[in-house]
Specification:
Blueprint (H helix, E strand, L loop, with lengths): L6 H20 L3 H15 L4 H14 L16 H25 L11
Helix pairs in contact: 2-3, 2-4, 3-4
């Protein structure tokens, strides 16, 4: 059974719109990143649960293997802090991790799942 003539064009249009949305949502300027890190640093210097969470985000970005981030710690952050600091920092970390995954050569072992 064949698709309707406009179905593939509509699917292509939907995929292009999704890609544009993702690109816009993940855009982080250098100024956004700097402001976000500064906001997290200021918060991390305090003595609250949010301070601990902010420090955890920064340490996890610095070295995620040595300083794994417990995502439940993020619940200690106020929404304002998540939007100010966490959002841009986490988006940039996602972009970098995605780029690193895409740059790796494909595995030759069929048993390996990436």
């Amino acid at each position: 059974m064949k698709d309707a003539p406009g179905a593939s064009a509509e699917a292509l249009r939907a995929a292009m719109e999704e890609e544009a949305f993702v690109r816009q949502a993940l855009t982080v300027t250098e100024a956004d990143y700097r402001d976000a890190v500064n906001a997290l640093l200021k918060l991390a210097e305090g003595d609250t649960g949010g301070s601990r969470a902010a420090a955890g985000v920064l340490l996890g970005l610095y070295n995620g293997q040595a300083f794994p981030l417990d995502l439940t710690d993020l619940c200690a952050l106020d929404l304002r802090h998540v939007q100010q600091g966490g959002g841009p920092v986490v988006r940039l970390a996602y972009i970098r991790a995605s780029a690193a995954r895409m740059a790796r050569p494909p595995s030759r072992s069929p048993a390996t799942v990436t």
